[in-house]
């Protein structure tokens, strides 16, 4: 049966790969995007997840097109990397507002109808950085670590309604965001990855799709690293 899937930040990188994975499985896929061009293959809604009114409107449009959202993937995120003493209040709060509070906004809106239907799948995209930390990314790491506590609290809260809430924590993924790194920096990163390479976006997407499948119906509150072993021990 084709399910209604919403992927936030689904116009590029990991989000786009996730959207494609669900579409290939026959699901009805909608994506949100804040800037740039919307992907032509999906029902796309422009939405800034830092604005609750825009989030509500985006859901109304998706619900009208595909029905209530049955699978939500909270993927939208931003970075503003800099060392702590150079980090402004706005550098910190804007990242947290998008990556963590933005996830709160979309999950709260989706869970309303999931609870009524007594079923649903929520997957939050965190990061290995949220588990192990990274210099110059205290804002990003804090926001991504926050998703873990958020998800585990919701797993307990929403579990009685047959709604699972899980976290996927990617490592370094071969996307436009990492393509701008110098060859030297890329080599440094790969040297710390036991598998010795970056992930392909499709490898993150397949894990997300698994968590939304019937085979994963008894998995909730989990944090699944897809990082080539980079974050082992965390």
TrEMBL record:
Task: Give start and end of each Ketoreductase domain.
Answer: 3-176
Please give the catalytic activity noted in the UniProt record: a (3R)-hydroxyacyl-[ACP] + NADP(+) = a 3-oxoacyl-[ACP] + NADPH + H(+)
- CDD domains xrefs: BKR_SDR_c
Q: Which residues form the signal peptide?
A: none
| Pathway assignment | Lipid metabolism; fatty acid biosynthesis
GO function term, MF aspect, one: 3-oxoacyl-[acyl-carrier-protein] reductase (NADPH) activity
Q: Which Pfam families match?
A: adh_short_C2
Instruction: Give the EC class as a word.
Output: oxidoreductase
Q: Which SUPFAM superfamilies match?
A: NAD(P)-binding Rossmann-fold domains (SSF51735)
Q: Which InterPro entries match?
A: 3oxo_ACP_reduc, KR_dom, NAD(P)-bd_dom_sf, Sc_DH/Rdtase_CS, SDR_fam
Q: Which domain of life is it from?
A: Bacteria
Swiss-Prot/TrEMBL keywords: Fatty acid biosynthesis, Fatty acid metabolism, Lipid biosynthesis, Lipid metabolism, NADP, Oxidoreductase
Quote the EC number: 1.1.1.100
Family per record: Belongs to the short-chain dehydrogenases/reductases (SDR) family.
Q: How does it assemble?
A: Homotetramer.
PANTHER family per the UniProt record, alphabetical: 3-OXOACYL-[ACYL-CARRIER-PROTEIN] REDUCTASE, SHORT-CHAIN DEHYDROGENASES/REDUCTASES FAMILY MEMBER
Query: What does this protein do, in the record's words?
Result: Catalyzes the NADPH-dependent reduction of beta-ketoacyl-ACP substrates to beta-hydroxyacyl-ACP products, the first reductive step in the elongation cycle of fatty acid biosynthesis.
Q: What is this protein called?
A: 3-oxoacyl-[acyl-carrier-protein] reductase
Taxonomic classification, please?
Answer: Bacteria, Bacillati, Actinomycetota, Actinomycetes, Kitasatosporales
